[in-house]
Amino acid sequence: MTPFKDLKRTHTCGELTTDHIGQRVILNGWVNEYRNLGGLLFIDIRDRYDMTQVVFNPEKVDPEVFERAAGARHEYVVAAEGVVQKRPEGTENKNLKTGEIEVLGERFYILSESRTPPFEIRDETDASEVLRLEYRYLDLRRKPLQDKIKVRHFSTMAIREYLSSQGFYEIETPLLMRSTPEGARDYVVPSRIQKGKFYALPQSPQLLKQILMISGFDKYFQIARCLRDEDLRADRQPEHTQVDIEMSFVTKDDVFRVGEGMMAHLLEKVLGVKVETPFPQCEYSEVMNRWGIDKPDTRFGMEIRDISEVVSDSDFKIFSETIRAGGVVKAICLKGGGEYSRKQIDDLTQYAKNLGAGGLAYILRHPDGDKSPFTKFIGEDTKNQICGRAEASPGDAVFIISGKKLKAETILGQLRLHLAKTHNLIDGDQWKFLWVTRFPLFEYNEDEKRLEAMHNIVSMPIEEDMHYLDEAENTEYDISDIRHPLRQVRAEQYDLVLNGTEIASGSIRIHRREIQQRILNILGMPDERAERMFGFLLKALEYGAPPHGGVAAGLDRIVALMTGAEGIREVIAFPKTATAQSLMDGSPAEVDPEQLRELGLKFF
């Protein structure tokens, strides 16, 4: 058997061009295709760089070599040696980087055989995702996935390059730490040495990067692994990667400049796309009023319009009674929707009901005249005012939702996105960024009848809202009432949205112990429990903590947007399923009973 050192490749399968004609080369890779045509044997050898055609002529090669080559099958790992020659005229392949040449094979070795793959290794595949995740090592051989992983690599390199140029240190933080409830459930790790005690895997490096600020490292970043035991959705994984950034002695505008600079550098370096900075900013309340979602896609219009004032005194009781009860009536305008059919209206109404709406009111500005089932209740004048507020011209359609403010806005926000996708209103070549700022510090949990942090327990209340903390001690309102003072407190919290996807989130942090302890108390954590869970942070805040803030960008989501992936699983080498399983290695799985005994664990 020939030692591999004598078969080691001299070139990759994407490297050879007409400049190499006449050179003797050795290629290593996988058999992508094999064809026996009129006595000539063609083998396409593939690696991650591309593919090269090798041809074996039985009249010019040793019979044993030809026999070995003829025995090669899909996904065999092979080595081929020969001389580069120009392909015969008319046989060039313009889809390959190596399409003008071929290698006239002289030696051939099978380095490793392969069973028949459960699906073909092709750019396009109809294999189920379950099958592809089970055989992820085969799925990753496909060029679309390899290209996405390549973009991910160059993205992390560009991020490191930019942040380093701005004076940031990359500092690693522990993967084994204390359990600190931050929203999702922790993954916990039992200690063999300290039986009965547990580490937690970090949901994020949040508290640790604040400790670094207190330590004097005023510019920190990390490409951090984050682990959260939460209910999964399409854009979530139990373990994901974020670009974690923290800075001392800054305002949010300083953080924004770094975040914008990083994204601009990343897109230009990796994709050649130039974006304008600074990015626009909108407060949360305005964002919900205009788009009905806190991560709006601003690549198209169709903004939400408030028509409550117009219909408040109308005879259409669904509107007037909703407004008297403290609700709102809001609308969106679909340009060119005036000729919607009865079926289209029924389908859209059902869609709205599935979102929680009681129904869907509408005005169709049809060429033959406006059509609306409630015009007789509101009159022509009010109907025209609604169309004016909604900026609806002849040929357009107005869709109206009434209800509690947040609910009505949220339904219209989803309806807006649905209509945009249905009517192809989104320009996929645009890169539209938006900073969403000043989120409410607290939100009410209907199920548990208590307040919780909308984003982060360490976000600083904005200065002009601090008085609400004092007013909350003597208020007539119940905590479930939106008018309660604590429901008015806004935070120096911000998200960065790109094309309707939240790609980053951050805040200016609380840097004084008394404020942090007060927030924890409001969230239902008495001093004793706060000390037990967050004592190390509270203690550190007593030793000269600088004003600081930061942002964490979701690397998986950013790369998914950059590559046009349908979800983040496509840009993660070894993702989990929606039930947090790894089909390839079978995790999570049982462990040996002896391991449990060593850890002092027993299941009941």
Q: What share of the residues lie within helices?
A: 25-40%
Number of strands: 22
Q: How much strand content do the residues show?
A: 15-25%
Named CATH topology of the largest domain:
BirA Bifunctional Protein, domain 2
Query: Could you tell me how far the N terminus lies from the C terminus, measured between alpha carbons in angstroms?
Result: 56 Å
- The CATH homologous superfamily of the largest domain is called Bira Bifunctional Protein, Domain 2
Could you report the average pLDDT, rounded to the nearest whole number? 94
Number of domains: 3
Figure out the total of helices.
17
Round the Cα radius of gyration to an integer and report it.
31 Å
Residue windows where pLDDT falls under 50 for at least 5 positions: none
Widest sheet, order of strands: 6-9-10-22-21-20-17-11
CATH class of the largest domain: Alpha Beta
Structural class: alpha+beta
Shape verdict:
globular
Give the second-level CATH assignment, the architecture of the largest domain. 2-Layer Sandwich
Report the major sheet: 8 strands, mixed
Question: Could you characterize what this model shows?
Answer:
With 604 residues, the protein is an alpha+beta fold. The chain has three domains: 4-112, Nucleic acid-binding proteins (OB fold (Dihydrolipoamide Acetyltransferase, E2P)), CATH 2.40.50.140; 120-280 and 547-584, BirA Bifunctional Protein, domain 2, CATH 3.30.930.10; 300-422, GAD-like domain (Gyrase A, domain 2). It is 30% helix and 23% strand. The chain contains 17 helices and 22 strands. The strands form five sheets. The chain has an eight-stranded mixed sheet, sandwiched between helices. The protein has a five-stranded mixed barrel with strand order 1-2-3-5-4. A five-stranded antiparallel sheet has the order 12-13-16-14-15. Helix 4 crosses helix 6 (252-271), helix 4 packs across helix 16 (555-563) and helix 7 (284-291) crosses helix 12 (405-422). It is globular, with a radius of gyration of 31 Å. The model has no long low-confidence stretch (mean pLDDT 94).
